[in-house]
Amino acid sequence: xxxxxxxxxxxNGYVNAESDCxxxxxxDTLESNTVFMKIFLTKSYQICxxxxxxxxxxxxxxxxxxxxxxKQIEITETRRIATRVRLLAxxxxxxxxxxxxxxxxxxxxxxxxxxxxxxxxEEMAGLYADERGQRCFARPSLIISVGNLLIKxxxxxxxxxxxxxxxxxxxxxxxxxxxxxxxxxNSMSCPSLASMKTKGCNKPVxxxxxxxxxxxxxxxxxxxxxKA
Length: 228
What we know:
This protein has a domain at 84-202. The protein is 75% helix and 5% strand. The protein has helices at 20-99, 105-108, 114-125, 140-164, 167-202, 210-222; strands at 6-8, 14-16, 127-129, 135-137.
């Protein structure tokens, strides 16, 4: 477009053009562009609406999936915690029967009762001596679980004692942990791991029976050959 003298247009505005023809062409172009923009905006809104609905559906599906996963994790953690609590309750029951007192578990977590705790766990795990006189356990996995729980319980006892400024409980927890660190590995952990390894090595290998193999062979022979 060639620009020249100003030409009056709509709304008292001015458009620089050389002829009225160019003004008419310009106005037609603006009008057609306005229609185009209306169509474009309408289509864009429809597309955005579809994307929004699709996105909302996807978010809802994702939320439900995450909710189910969290629920499953919660159930698993609940069962795990319940198993640990039952194990500690069994240990406390064994200690009360052995020591003939009404202590709670925290009162047994001291250096004085460390040996009693170990003996109670040995009874729970089924301690025995093999043909070579080595210490073995009928339930070796119990040793690993209880060992970890004892340290956690000592940490809880010490944490409560620090908040309550109870120096005697702090010393009791520290003494139990000191004996645990110096004794548990050799007397409990190593024999339990050896027992688990021995049980794994002595586990018989299950092989299919002869009758099952014959049935499989007959079934294979009766099948028509596959076409390549």
